[in-house]
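Late entry, written up from scratch paper. The run itself happened at the end of the previous shift, but nothing got recorded in the book at the time, so transcribing now.
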Amino acid sequence: MRTTLSLDDDVATYARAHAQRERISVGEAVSRLARQGILAQGQVPTTPAKPRSRYALLPARDEAITTEHVRALMDSEGI
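Output as recorded:
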């Protein structure tokens, strides 16, 4: 989800440093750090909101989806 946040200078500095160390985006760093804080309080993150369209998001993968992937799926589904 894309959003705009106003962060205190010390938090932004820490998030940027964390992102650089982990070689991730600042947004991913803030998400991970926030999630750690939620879990440290013993709370379970809530389930994501229902999609606003008929297309569901796919889970993250370590590989790019190619045309060959799509064609193989279409063949297996009889499309």
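Residues 46 and 75 are 36 Å apart (CA to CA).
(Scratch paper discarded after transcription.)
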